[in-house]
Backbone:
């Protein structure tokens, strides 16, 4: 039976519990319920009252394609609201082998306590002194852990940024390619891990258990159909595997929605240098890989192996948003430098999206010349060091804005906006404004329907239909996140009539229950309700559901659009 | 006729206007009304939409004792709410000589524009290139202005912190002793001035006008009685003139409410080294002055001239809160070093209260050893420089907390709490929680009645009567701030039966109206209503009316008290 593992980081006691009141919940539905129920909404995110929760999805460990995503939840140090930060990597695939559905890190050590490596076994938890890897970047720290636990060890790491409790810190999870390259990126949960003095978490390398579906035959059939669905859609079978998410660079630029120079324009004149096509060309010329999965069981394979000029591994999980953030938004067009920045973010443990907008704000404030990629690399290297500039960078866009006296701050609820200008992709703007997560595209990716014409066709420049679109996508996303599925399955799901039923069949067969499409929707709605409830208790109101004023005041070229939603109009996007 | 001077900092146009809809309002009532009416509550505080408003009080320029305070208003870069920051100095006494009741700085220059010195005359405004004083500390900058405009020039300066738009920046006003030693300290209005590229404002040194009371005889009589009232109370005639506000060090320590080591204790074991008595002794031994006024017409004389060991002027306006903030709260007991820190804050243009709590938070985060006064001095010197540590410090307590990963952050609405622990002076805790200003003691100084037994006797350790006390004091304070009177008149007013009538007589005689005690109260209530209304529009709710959780979780020695108010209980303190 899958269990909850609670770990008290102060007393170092642990407890395996039955799921109890959390039975039936997984992934985001699980983390958001637990955080809403057990974390005082008015606590400081770095205080002992906050809890860090990791949960596999309802389909975690089932073996269904792309079901290995991990949800990480807590009160966010970045937004002050609830956070679910979603990561690939091997963690969510391995926890079920230990019969562990979720891990909850509670309390925090006394002042002056050192960092620990937390070893998790099927029957116990052990705290080991982390001193040898404290202060170390994530890749070398992971190498050290490999020396102790073996190459295939499954780890979670707080990087130097997380150790310092910087509010844009990630938690880095190890991937199938033996690198700590997958991030629970958004919302600063690495800082919560750091506040609890957990440097690393290691899952028993000898873990052997395997989840057995309740109805093996039915599960097998559903699983087969599920893979067919994913392999039958052009985005998930051709676009993403061929070019990764960076395929969007040209598409969004063409749509006039690629934010340029801290959201001043919608097109980048040097876009050809940073496009997905260009990246694929570079990768192939250096014997890298254009297709890799972020976790075992992924059939979409949107990740890659990006090698440097000498053919040595540089980075992976090199996403469109990262290319955009350090690229167009900072007027940088050197793709190797951008890849280097991606790697540094993974090394220090900071969110690449937040760092891209932070860098642009620093440039806006005169802290660095526009387009200075070498200078940008040096700034990122400071993160996690004693250099106070690293402390500014690692705390993200709003903090950099205050440090440099900048009034052009592209954030919602304290979290930076990603790579789609909301004036010309209005659907995703509705998501930015209204999701309980703060500025976030993944929470309701209306770009799909606005630009890619997946799941319908809603004009990106018009207000019509966007609020409803965003709401429906927010619900579907929360449900997909709760099943532990990769969000990219949504491209296929939205265009395939039997896809929702197929996901329900997977759940039903895996758990021996009758899980319907209504249950699927309810799971998404309830997760969102937990999140909105927590945020309301934390002091958020509808006033927080709006974009910064400059989006309403400045027209965006080339379409000369502005953001023109009232707060009242936006409320209908919330469940 | 007194006029409003509007200055567009982008176009450099100016306009003298009649008071119009703002007639009858002065000081805080004026600034809060104008900000509430004319500034979009959701604007970025550093954006062109914000306005910086300076207003003399209703009694400004009348010649009544202690009527020369200036109210500065804007949307605060520190709190995100409305701000009235109150300053001494000669500015409010000189504006009426130019028939100027209020000055409104609007819009902001284009990107890349340089700083200006704004010269204000009775008939015009001139913008001069400020390049020669840009980047200069406030004292040397003021010296340069004296060379141009004469020794007695009346100036307002944005220091190096304000130039960088740091959110704890002050505006420094020149005092009668020819130094830029008076601050509109709280809430970061120096950053708003900096955002508008105003380095300095200079009032016509040849200003000669003089306000004539409508009823000279009545005014003369009321003015005489008013001075008698101030001179008849022991706090305003003996305590404050003898020792300045630092007389409180021993008193509050004795009461067990002197926050020590970032609000961990209520008494400082080295209090004797930093007491008001000790400071007076040092001042006298060095031929300084224990009595000085912050503006012409002050009869309380709580300021001083603090000389260094060589007998040279070091600082003035050396307040209790400053002594506490860099002293007990940082475990520093070297009074000369604390005086040096006060001077540096005036030089860089940052709020000493915010800096004291910021320093303690940096110490809490391991950025400096507790008690390291030399290190603290070095940190303050970085403010306004290109050193990023200065950018962290100059943005105050919450930003330092994020930079150093500290969860013990003594702020309300983003502004740091001052020198009275709310667990053992509960009345002022109610003010901290509920005033629209954010953590602020001056907004409703219940210390008077809780500890000094002025205006009654309410047990500081008990909840009983505190909410009503705070509410009444908040109203009276807003009214006093609106008349342009020094807040310290309240000590005498609270204990003198005819004092409110005397203030009303002053207003009536000065303006030829019938101003009653009800009008006085209404002026305070209406100012607060404007402020609460603005904050509500800016997104504040009652959830923001509470102290950080640690005050409710940790008992404060020696009385072992906690903060035990629910948000609902606190709402009654609001008008």
Residues:
């Amino acid at each position: 039976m899958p269990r909850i593992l609670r770990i008290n980081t102060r007393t170092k006691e642990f407890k395996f519990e039955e799921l109890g009141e959390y039975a039936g919940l997984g992934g985001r539905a699980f983390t958001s319920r637990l955080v809403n129920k057990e974390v005082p909404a008015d606590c400081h995110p770095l205080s002992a009252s906050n809890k860090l929760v990791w949960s596999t999805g309802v389909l975690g460990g089932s073996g269904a394609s792309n079901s290995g995503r991990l949800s990480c939840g807590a009160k966010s140090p970045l937004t002050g609201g609830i956070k679910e930060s979603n990561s690939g990597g091997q963690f969510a695939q391995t926890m079920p082998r230990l019969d562990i559905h979720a891990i909850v890190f509670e309390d925090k050590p006394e002042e002056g306590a050192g960092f620990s490596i937390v070893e998790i076994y099927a029957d116990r938890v052990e705290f080991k002194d982390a001193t040898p890897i404290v202060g170390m970047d994530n890749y070398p720290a992971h190498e050290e852990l490999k020396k102790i636990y073996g190459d295939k060890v499954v780890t979670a790491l707080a990087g130097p940024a997380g150790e310092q409790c910087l509010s844009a810190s990630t938690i880095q999870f190890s991937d199938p390619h033996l690198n700590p390259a997958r991030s629970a990126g958004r919302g600063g949960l690495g800082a919560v891990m750091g506040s609890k003095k957990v440097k690393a978490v290691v899952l028993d390398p000898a873990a052997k258990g395997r989840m057995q579906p309740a109805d093996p035959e039915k599960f097998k059939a559903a699983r087969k159909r599920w893979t067919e669905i994913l392999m039958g859609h052009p985005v998930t079978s051709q676009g993403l595997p061929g070019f990764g998410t960076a395929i969007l660079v040209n598409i969004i630029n063409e749509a006039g929605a690629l934010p340029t120079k801290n959201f001043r324009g919608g097109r980048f004149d040097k876009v050809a240098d940073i496009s997905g096509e260009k990246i694929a060309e570079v990768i192939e010329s250096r014997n890298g890989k254009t297709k890799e999965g972020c976790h075992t069981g992924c059939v979409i394979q949107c990740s890659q192996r990006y090698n440097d000029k000498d053919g040595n591994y540089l980075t992976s999980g090199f996403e469109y948003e990262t290319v955009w953030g350090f690229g167009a938004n900072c007027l940088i067009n050197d793709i190797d430098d951008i890849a280097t920045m991606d790697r540094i973010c993974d090394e220090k443990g900071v969110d690449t999206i937040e760092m891209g907008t932070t860098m642009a704000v620093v440039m806006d404030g005169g802290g660095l010349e526009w387009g200075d990629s070498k200078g940008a690399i040096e700034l990122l290297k400071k993160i996690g060091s004693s250099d106070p500039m690293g402390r500014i960078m690692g705390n993200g866009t709003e903090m950099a804005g205050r440090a440099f006296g900048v009034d052009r701050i592209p954030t919602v609820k304290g979290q930076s906006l990603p790579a789609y200008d909301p004036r010309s992709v209005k659907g995703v703007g509705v998501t930015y404004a209204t999701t309980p997560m703060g500025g976030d595209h993944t929470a309701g990716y209306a770009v799909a329907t606005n630009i890619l014409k997946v799941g319908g066709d809603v004009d990106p420049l018009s207000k019509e239909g966007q609020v409803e679109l965003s709401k429906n996508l927010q619900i579907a996303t929360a449900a997909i996140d709760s099943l532990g599925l990769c969000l990219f399955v949504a491209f296929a799901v939205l265009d395939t009539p039997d896809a929702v039923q197929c996901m329900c069949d997977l759940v039903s067969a895996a758990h021996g229950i009758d899980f319907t499409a209504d249950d699927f929707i309810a799971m998404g709605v309830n997760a969102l309700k937990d999140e909105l409830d927590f945020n309301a208790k934390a002091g958020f109101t509808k006033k927080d559901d709006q974009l910064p004023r400059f989006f309403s005041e400045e027209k965006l070229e080339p379409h000369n659009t502005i953001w023109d939603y009232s707060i009242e109009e936006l409320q209908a996007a919330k469940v």
